[in-house]
Amino acid sequence: MTLSGHLFSAPLHTEIQMVPVRLIEEPDTQEVNPGIERLGVMQSVLLKLSGHSERPYRIVDGKRRVRSALNYGIEQVPALITDGTRGQIAAASAILNAARSSHPLDEARNWQIALEEGQFGDVKELAAHVRISVQTIRKRLRLLTLPEDLLAHIGVSIAEGVAERMANLAPEYREQAIRAAERRLDAGEKFTAADLKESQTARARDFEESLDTLFGPEPLLAVPRDPLTELVQEVRRLAALGGVELPALVRALARGVPGLNEPSSTPAEPPASPRLTVTHRPGRVNLGLRPSERLP
Fold first, then answer.
1. Region Disordered: which residues (predicted)?
2. Is 82 in contact with 50 (CB distance < 8 Å)?
């Protein structure tokens, strides 16, 4: 079921209500907006029913605003109340967050839930709704392949771009980078692009060695890896990174190399040896002897 019609099972009530913060479930963030202390909560939060009598509302969008209200002693916040399912709420959060700067992991988690719950048919449909490129969405979703304790440091001790490059590494090199990052973080240091470069260099070096093994002369010693498999994996990784479907890539390669998809089943015949043509003439036959060597 893809997103169509109303986002929720019933139309969203657009009337803003003032909701006491004591009735809202505790937000799972400690971040605050200092401006709220002076100006109050200017932008409404999005809430849904939690099913609990003591705190009947759960935050869909606006965790920092609610946390700020709690910290600064603000008793009520403006809110919209809705009734969405898990997938619908994730879709709503994805669309709301796309309208302003949001933490990349919050976006990625909402996108993943919305896709898993069938609110969008695929990444392309999601991209059309949130107005973010397919490539950016895929990069953000790949962040979720990193360990949770590492994700907590993104934007603090690990830059988002560094984390994206780490998530894009092949599994064996990604594990090396993760261990290197954990050592840095345990020492209270940041994990930077320079630290990641070692794992990226190792991947490039091993890939070059695989190509040398595949296309170069026979090695003196057996190499304990399958270069063809590594080449296929690298092509798949690059295709996924660029948002290219593999069937389309194969078709493009076939167009560029005529006959690529039509291997010959009959082995090529060796070139024919030059044939000696003998011309018969009446009379004597010249055997190619010098005059002094001719027979009497």
1. 260-296
2. no
